[in-house]
Amino acid sequence: MEAVWIESLHNLHCPHCDSRLLQRAGRHFHSALGAQVYVGDVDSLACPDGHRLPGRDQLYDYRAQQGHAAVAPVSEVGPLPD
Q1: Residues 6+ apart with CB under 8 A from 9
Q2: How far apart are CA 69 and CA 76, in angstroms?
Q3: Entry pTM
Q4: pLDDT digits 0-9 by tens, 8-53
Q5: Exposure string for 25-62, b = 16+ CB within 10 A, e = fewer
């Protein structure tokens, strides 16, 4: 499994700056789909601007309050600094 950084699979955004969150994910080949899929690590959610994030429930509530779609296209992003 190859680990990469991607935009949030659930289209979550930072409540401080409204940037789309990033998360680490594994890239897997799904034989039934015949395509690569991402399996996200929810514990790795991070704001690209470094803001401290609230709990996941608050992130989902913020997404709903702002009217962001529950799903959106996902892109790989460069590595985050440690």
Answers
A1: 23, 25, 38, 40, 74
A2: 19
A3: 0.87
A4: 999 999 999 999 999 999 988 889 989 888 999 989 999 999 999 9
A5: beeeeeeeeeeeebebeeeebbbeeeeebeeeeebeeb
